[in-house]
């Protein structure tokens, strides 16, 4: 459009505010567009360029561009440790497995001792790595106080390179905020926010001290968020708050420590097969935990679906496209997504209540 209406008028010196003339390479160029139209057209072209660049970057990251090698956070002697919270099942267990496969020694945290012992045994036998475990209830300030002190002692002698803040609690089922039990609110906020913040506060000095040394590898913190933090989610308001809050905290932390050799990323999943999602079968939009973790560890440093948002990433391909789509038309698409999510949660609640009723009758 701009090119069609720009005409070179060699030798012409006629210029007006509506048809400005520019001298380029010895030629006078007169623009046949009124200046306001030219400004609008330029602005439109820049906006279109921004979308084009971000979309092409998204496609390149999803197809050909490799992420940073996860092994690059290890020291040369290979005795680097990773701490994974909520590692007794789902996404956390898979992070523990895939990091062990890459040669990291692993500290697993969770509430159930027998499962933690089993996970430790599996990692040691299958991947020939060392493990430690810690039984801790993230929702309980007293359990955190006691067990985090123990963990602080435990990691003193370890080369800690990776922290995966995966632990998370959600609502038993979607529920209106006005009807949410106080206990459920406390459990979610304590686990997702306070537990994660205090653990990171405890371990960050170890990650910083290691990475600040000259020639040392960087350290990595992955905070597992949720699409419910990205799209404010009716009927999961408290969970949504905690994941949105973690997102802002994670970005603030990332910019604070990036100059000191610690890379912090907020990882945003949509649905993944797990106990929390109560989805048992993988599909196009719902990956298995192994597939989700593999795409996360394979794209470290890339934003993927979180194009244009600092220190965030939406790694799984179909989640990435959804996230990108939600941001495409600004508030129009964001509001649309909020309404779609609300409808989905109303529906999930109805089905969950019907199931509960059936189970009660069956007893
Ligand atoms: N699955 C999804 O669709 C989805 C979507 C978006 C985000 N996420 C996020 O992904 C992360 C992992 O979720 P997931 O789907 O793998 O869930 P999951 O299968 O329910 O696993 C949650 C893990 O957290 C642990 N945990 C929960 N509450 C705890 C507490 N108070 N103290 C200590 N450990 C506790 C559980 O241990 P126990 O064995 O003791 O229960 C389990 O190991 C969470 O942060 C979640 O918000 C999941």
Keywords:
disordered N terminus; single chain; 2 domains; 14% strand; Rossmann fold; alpha/beta; seven-stranded parallel β-sheet; 10 strands; 363 residues; binds NADP nicotinamide-adenine-dinucleotide phosphate; 10 helices; three-stranded antiparallel β-sheet
List the helices and strands and how they pair.
Layout: E1 6-8, E2 21-24, E3 27-31, H1 35-63, E4 80-85, H2 90-101, E5 105-110, H3 113-127, E6 131-135, H4 141-155, E7 159-165, H5 182-212, E8 219-224, H6 227-230, H7 237-257, E9 262-267, H8 289-297, E10 312-313, H9 317-328, H10 331-362
Parallel strand pairs: 4-5, 4-7, 5-6, 7-8, 8-9, 9-10
Antiparallel strand pairs: 1-3, 2-3
Bound molecules: NADP nicotinamide-adenine-dinucleotide phosphate (NAP).
GO cellular component, one term: endoplasmic reticulum membrane
Membrane topology: Single-pass membrane protein
Subcellular location: Endoplasmic reticulum membrane
Number of strands: 10
Number of helices: 10
The SSE order reads: EEEHEHEHEHEHEHHEHEHH
Ligand types: NADP nicotinamide-adenine-dinucleotide phosphate
Distance between the termini: 71 Å
Helical percentage? 40-55%
Determine and state the CATH class of the largest domain: Alpha Beta
- How many structural domains? 2
Structural class based on helices, strands and sheet pairing: alpha/beta
Major sheet attributes: 7 strands, parallel
Mean pLDDT: 93
Shape: globular
At the fourth level of CATH, the homologous superfamily of the largest domain is NAD(P)-binding Rossmann-like Domain
Strand-residue proportion: 5-15%
State the CATH architecture of the largest domain. 3-Layer(aba) Sandwich
């Amino acid at each position: 459009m701009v090119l069609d209406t720009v005409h070179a008028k060699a030798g012409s010196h006629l210029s007006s505010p509506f048809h400005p003339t520019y001298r380029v390479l010895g030629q006078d160029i007169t623009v046949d567009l009124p200046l306001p139209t030219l400004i609008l057209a330029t602005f439109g072209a820049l906006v279109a360029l921004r979308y084009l660049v971000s979309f092409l970057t998204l496609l390149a990251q999803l197809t050909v561009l490799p992420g940073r090698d996860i092994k690059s956070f290890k020291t040369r002697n290979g005795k680097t440790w990773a701490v994974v919270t909520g590692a007794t099942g789902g996404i956390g267990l898979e992070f523990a497995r895939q990091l062990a496969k890459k040669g990291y020694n692993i500290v697993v945290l969770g509430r159930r001792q027998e499962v933690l012992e089993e996970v430790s045994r599996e990692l040691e036998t299958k991947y020939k790595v060392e493990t430690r475990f810690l039984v801790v209830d993230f929702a309980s300030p007293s359990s955190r106080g006691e067990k985090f002190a123990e963990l602080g002692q435990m990691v003193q002698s370890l080369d800690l390179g990776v922290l995966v803040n995966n632990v998370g609690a959600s609502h038993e089922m979607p529920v209106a905020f006005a009807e949410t039990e106080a206990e459920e609110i406390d459990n979610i906020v304590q686990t997702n926010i306070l537990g994660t913040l205090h653990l990171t506060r405890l371990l960050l000095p170890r990650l910083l001290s290691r990475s600040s040394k000259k020639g040392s590898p960087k350290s990595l913190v992955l905070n597992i968020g949720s699409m419910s933090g990205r799209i404010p989610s009716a009927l999961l308001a408290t969970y949504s708050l905690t994941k949105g809050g973690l997102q802002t905290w994670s970005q603030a932390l990332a910019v604070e420590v990036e100059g000191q050799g610690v890379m912090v990323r907020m990882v945003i999943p949509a649905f993944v097969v797990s106990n929390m999602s109560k989805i048992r079968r993988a599909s196009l939009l719902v990956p298995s935990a192994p597939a989700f973790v593999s795409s996360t560890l394979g794209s470290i440093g890339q934003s993927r679906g979180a194009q244009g948002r600092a220190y965030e990433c939406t790694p799984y391909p179909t989640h990435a496209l959804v996230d990108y789509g939600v941001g495409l038309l600004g508030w129009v698409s964001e509001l649309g997504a909020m309404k779609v999510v609300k409808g989905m949660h109303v529906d999930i609640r109805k089905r969950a209540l019907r199931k509960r009723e059936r189970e009660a009758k069956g007893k």
